[in-house]
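Box 3.1 A note on notation
Throughout this textbook, protein chains are presented in two layers. The first layer is the amino acid sequence; the second is a token string describing backbone geometry. Keep the layers aligned when reading.
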Amino acid sequence: MIEVAVCYSGVHALWGHRVNHWLWKKDIKLLARAGSSFTRLLTGVEIHPGAVLGARVFIDHASGVVIGETAEVGDDVTIYQGVTLGGTSLMHMKRHPTIGNRVTIGAGAKILGPITIGDDCRIGANAVVVKSAPPNSVVIGVPGQIISRGSPAVQVNRPDLESVLMPDLLGSSVQSLLGRVDALETMLKGRASHQDRRQSDEGLWSGDDFSI
């Protein structure tokens, strides 16, 4: 506990935000913004004092994280470095995302606009999310594509850290495309299906005639 209190800049950023958010709610906004800027200088994390953060939020490897004014973050959320919860409008309205409970946001992900990310979601690293995601789903890619999980998260009230379960969207799409091409070749030319063109367990494509 001493190590966390002394060494974890993500914890320091959250402590600073709790104070700044209290000042913001008391309408002492200039001091709140000054405190937010000072916290950013110390930790590399910029959290607008108007943002609402739930309990047990954890910012890991805290560097380059930006959370906007009208953002709302639920309980037990894990945020990695380089994440942006940003807005897409200059209007004085709800313009930042709402993050549900037990959401994991991968490094470099950008969640933009007044969208909602449901409970138990996982946002892949470097994803750019501009549409709402239902609970218990995975979002990957640019722009972010929503993929439903095969089964719900097994851990309760804890972040989902099973990165190896992230789907290979591009690999699945290419594999499906190859199957359709083989079927067409068989229909048009009577050729045997190329059984050797497939993706191995190691993620490498076999077959000497495969190209993009």
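The chain has two domains: 2-165, 168-212. Residues 169-189 form the longest helix (21 residues).
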